[in-house]
Amino acid sequence: MQLPTILLTTLGIATTAATLATTTSNPSPPATRLPLPLAPAPVPIPIPTAPKPHLKPWNLTSMRSFSPSGRPGSSPFVTLNLTIVDLNDADRLPRSALKNATLEAECDTQWSWENFDYDKDPYNRVHNCSKVDVGWWTFELFKTNASVPNPARNFLVQFEHHVKRDEVYVGVGNLSVETNVRGACGGSGVCTWYLWEGAMPVYINQARV
Ligand SMILES: *[C@@H]1O[C@H](CO)[C@@H](O)[C@H](O)[C@H]1NC(C)=O
Ligand SMILES: *[C@@H]1O[C@H](CO)[C@@H](O)[C@H](O)[C@H]1NC(C)=O
Ligand SMILES: *[C@@H]1O[C@H](CO)[C@@H](O)[C@H](O)[C@H]1NC(C)=O
Ligand SMILES: *[C@@H]1O[C@H](CO)[C@@H](O)[C@H](O)[C@H]1NC(C)=O
Ligand SMILES: *[C@@H]1O[C@H](CO)[C@@H](O)[C@H](O)[C@H]1NC(C)=O
Ligand SMILES: *[C@@H]1O[C@H](CO)[C@@H](O)[C@H](O)[C@H]1NC(C)=O
């Protein structure tokens, strides 16, 4: 069976008779050889570039991080607070339930800055977000491939919205001081970072997995 031209084209395979023809006089490798695989992505799933037409994106409504001064007596923890809403959830609830529904998930985590290993903590750990009325959310931080990764201001965050046990969506937010994060460190060493107003709203496209 022959693959449809559209699929072959999507796979980057030439479909003209000339390139598909095999000849005994030409020893060059077949034209259909696929390119070498790309270098591994920093996240386990490809970042969706476009939402499904019927899906509204997620809205990352806030991001805030706080790093303590490190002075004796100050907190040993860096705190990160994210809040996210699935804009499709309003359509998933009956009108009567919508009025009083909790749709915004708070996704919080903390890590110690003291014995901090940038290659591990706080990356690659799945956390639960707060309870919502449509399914449940988890999130996980990943090291950014941009310059100077920092889980408090320059990081990737992969959210999962489990709408139902068998209906799960994944999306990745790219938080970066180059684009959508602003903040400052005070003379005391305390740093706070948040979504830059000029970059809001920050939407995240999701894909069903
Ligand atoms: C997304 O969140 C921002 C910040 O809360 C808000 O200003 C914006 O209206 C929201 N967008 C939608 C479509 O709800
Ligand atoms: C709204 O939700 C809260 C908390 O779940 C509950 O205490 C309250 O009774 C609800 N109000 C209505 C009008 O359903
Ligand atoms: C931020 O997250 C921490 C837990 O990591 C929590 O104790 C704190 O209440 C959160 N702050 C806000 C404003 O939600
Ligand atoms: C996250 O929530 C799920 C479902 O409620 C629960 O089974 C799991 O133990 C929680 N995980 C953590 C790390 O709290
Ligand atoms: C980071 O990853 C994105 C998405 O995979 C890619 O488009 C971008 O070129 C990468 N940037 C760098 C600096 O590697
Ligand atoms: C995240 O955004 C930064 C800044 O624009 C960019 O350099 C980087 O390639 C992006 N990474 C991904 C995985 O999209």
Rounded to the nearest angstrom, the radius of gyration is: 23 Å
Helical/strand content category: mainly beta
Q: Which molecules are bound besides the chains?
A: 2-acetamido-2-deoxy-beta-D-glucopyranose
Structure annotation, total helices: 4
Can you tell me the overall shape? globular
Order of helices and strands: HHEEHHEEEEEEEEE
CATH topology: AOC barrel-like
Amino- and carboxy-terminal Cα gap: 29 Å
Helical residue percent? Answer: under 10%
Question: Would you write up a description of this structure?
Answer:
- It is a single chain.
- The chain has 209 residues and is mostly beta strands.
- It has a single domain, classed as AOC barrel-like (Beta Barrel), CATH 2.40.350.20.
- It is 9% helix and 35% strand.
- The strands form two sheets. Strands 1, 2, 3, 8, 9 and 10 form a six-stranded antiparallel sheet that branches.
- A hairpin with a 2-residue loop joins strand 6 (155-164) and strand 7.
- It starts with a helix and ends with a strand.
- Mean pLDDT is 80; it is low at 1-32.
- The structure holds 2-acetamido-2-deoxy-beta-D-glucopyranose (6 copies).
- One 2-acetamido-2-deoxy-beta-D-glucopyranose binds at residues 41, 47, 145-146.
- Residues 1-21 form the signal peptide.
- Keywords: Signal.
Topology of helices and strands:
Layout: H1 5-10, H2 17-20, E1 58-67, E2 77-86, H3 89-92, H4 95-98, E3 104-112, E4 127-128, E5 136-143, E6 155-164, E7 167-175, E8 181-185, E9 191-195, E10 202-204, E11 206-208
The structure holds 2-acetamido-2-deoxy-beta-D-glucopyranose (NAG) (6 copies).
One 2-acetamido-2-deoxy-beta-D-glucopyranose binds next to strand 2 and strand 3.
